[in-house]
Amino acid sequence: MKSLIFLLVSSLWVSSLEWGGDFEKAKTEANQNHKFILLNFCGSDWCGPCIKLKKDIFESSDFEQYAASRLVLVRADFPRLKKNQLEPHQTVHNETLAEKYNPQGKFPFTVLLDAQGKVIKQWDGYPTSMNTLTFIHDISTTLDVAK
Q1: DSSP character for 105?
Q2: Domain regions of the chain by residue span
Q3: Distance between CA atoms of 141 and 145, rounded to whole angstroms?
Q4: What integer pLDDT is reported at residue 46 of this predicted model?
Q5: Which residues of 112-125 are buried (b: 16+ CB within 10 A; e: fewer)?
Q6: What is the pLDDT of residue 16?
Q7: What are 103-128's pLDDT values in tens digits?
Q8: Which is nearest to 101 in space by CA: 126, 128, 74?
Q9: CATH fold label, 15-146
């Protein structure tokens, strides 16, 4: 019994930060909690730089800790494999986001937005000179200027 409780509690500590898919919900949450929105366009099952960005930066504990109190995370995914296809309504939603925020169809493409959806900064691709701490610093500096 003690080990079951330990497993349940420890799983709470290692849970990763959630990336949502509902942009309107993200804007509401960002507005209510005085946060910014980080919108990431990716091809989760075909885009090597997207997979690397997710693994190296977005899933790092440093980024998750930083983002938890400052950002609402939204992922607009465009998978290609049939087994990974999204629900039709989510596909339409992601395409609508791409028309507005990523009309050139770049992958990965990450956009920092205010709670109303106004673009503050964009990152095109996976910058080889960037690591988690420089990415966090870049966001922090941008938010300091935006306030």
Answers
A1: -
A2: 15-146
A3: 6
A4: 98
A5: bbbbebeeebebee
A6: 65
A7: 999 999 999 999 999 999 999 999 77
A8: 74
A9: Glutaredoxin (3.40.30)
